[in-house]
């Protein structure tokens, strides 16, 4: 019959080949009731309990091809309760390793301890290498980022130089346009002066034209008055001619008409002169 007691995955006590072997860290503190094993009492006795002894304990009893096990939870120094805690395959593998270490002699245990220390150191070294690699990654990224920024800076400098050249060219064009604008402004001012002069001349001509029109209106008024006077005179002459005709004899009508014609002749001359 073989009895194994585990605290977690560490072998606490091993009963095999009628010998009890105490696990590391439990030397002189654990024991079995070997005289009562035949009664089925496989209880584990722990002396000088401390806070670190609290936890789950697994008991495995192998008899031939049959293995039975139970889990107990030690909550305090005097209370131990059955537990339905399940153990994983990884935990069971560690338990088997712990049993093998418990069975090995002290030198093998020391060798195993050294090996475990080396493994821990190797693990630490690997972790440090990983940390270094992780730290190098940001440095590499920073270097790449810096190179990208330098490239962008060079491109911006090139763009800035092109922009400066364009600005200089635009300044030259602007100066040329300013000169052209000044020339056009000067010409425009000259044209405005000429236009003002032409306007002044035009106003003077308008005044002269108004004066001439005024004189023409006055002359037309005078002509109309003269025409009225002439018409009045013609009317008076006709009346006189009629009176003369009435006074004379019928035989003398022809001479009277001739005389009337002769009298009318100065009137025609008068009209010619008026015209």
Question: What layout of secondary structure does this protein have?
Answer:
Layout: E1 2-7, E2 10-16, E3 19-22, E4 30-32, E5 44-46, E6 55-63, E7 66-74, E8 80-83, H1 89-103, H2 106-247, H3 253-274
Antiparallel strand pairs: 1-2, 1-6, 2-3, 4-5, 6-7, 7-8
Record the strand order, biggest sheet. Answer: 3-2-1-6-7-8
What is the helix tally?
Answer: 3
Principal-axis shape: rod-shaped
Fraction of residues in helices? 55-70%
Indicate the mean pLDDT: 84
Question: How would you explain this protein's 3D organization?
Answer:
- It is a single chain.
- With 275 residues, the protein is of the alpha+beta class.
- Helix content is 65%, strand content 16%.
- The chain is built from three helices and eight strands.
- The protein has helices at residues 89-103, 106-247, 253-274; strands at 2-7, 10-16, 19-22, 30-32, 44-46, 55-63, 66-74, 80-83.
- The strands form two sheets. The protein has a six-stranded antiparallel beta sheet, covered by helices on one side. A two-stranded antiparallel ribbon has the order 4-5.
- Strand 1 and strand 2 form a beta hairpin.
- It is rod-shaped, with a radius of gyration of 73 Å.
């Amino acid at each position: 019959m073989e009895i194994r007691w585990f605290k977690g995955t560490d072998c606490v006590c091993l009963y095999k080949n009628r010998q009890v072997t105490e696990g590391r860290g439990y030397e002189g503190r654990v024991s079995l009731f070997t005289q009562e094993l035949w009664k089925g009492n496989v209880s584990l006795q722990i002396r000088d309990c401390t806070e670190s002894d609290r936890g789950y304990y697994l008991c495995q009893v192998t008899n031939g091809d049959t293995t039975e096990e139970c889990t107990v939870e030690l909550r305090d120094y005097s209370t131990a309760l059955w537990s339905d805690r399940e153990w994983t395959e990884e935990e069971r593998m560690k338990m088997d390793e712990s049993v093998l270490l418990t069975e090995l002699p002290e030198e093998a245990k020391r060798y195993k301890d050294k090996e475990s220390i080396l493994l821990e150191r190797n693990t630490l070294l690997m972790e440090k290498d990983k940390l270094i690699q992780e730290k190098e990654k940001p440095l590499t990224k920073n270097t790449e980022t810096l190179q990208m920024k330098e490239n962008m800076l060079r491109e911006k400098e090139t763009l800035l130089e092109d922009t400066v050249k364009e600005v200089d060219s635009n300044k030259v064009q602007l100066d040329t346009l300013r000169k052209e604008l000044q020339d056009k402004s000067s010409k425009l001012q000259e044209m405005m002066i000429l236009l003002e002069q032409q306007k002044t001349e035009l106003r003077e001509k308008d005044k002269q034209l108004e004066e001439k029109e005024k004189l023409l209106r006055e002359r037309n008024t005078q002509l109309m008055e003269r025409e009225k006077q002439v018409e009045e005179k013609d009317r008076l002459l006709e009346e006189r001619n009629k009176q003369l005709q009435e006074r004379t004899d019928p035989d003398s009508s022809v001479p009277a008409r001739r005389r009337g014609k002769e009298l009318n002749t100065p009137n025609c001359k008068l009209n010619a002169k008026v015209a």
